[in-house]
Design goal:
The chain is built from three helices and five strands. The chain has a five-stranded mixed sheet with strand order 3-4-2-1-5, covered by helices on one side. It is 29% helix and 24% strand. The protein is α+β, with helices and mostly antiparallel strands and 99 residues long.
Length: 99
Amino acid sequence: MNICPKCGLPEQACVCADIAKEEQKIRIGTVKRKFGKITTVVEGFDSGIDIKEIAKKLKNELACGGTVKNNSIELQGDHTKKIRPALVKYGFRDEQITE
């Protein structure tokens, strides 16, 4: 049986990922790109989170394209209203998400 080096619990009962999600300060904003395109940027993720997995889930749920750059998620289009409920569903706290 493998033991988590951070919390000391067995890997099946490890709570490190849940604790890391609750401690994030996430910022949601939009940026106007070339040719007037709007891009939604979600930033503020720390190293304890799998950003690529979250980006994949967001892209599937919002039906848009996107990428991960510099510890932030960039999604094509304006999704500022839809991202907050999606992040709460994935385990992030609503109080720590700002727009």
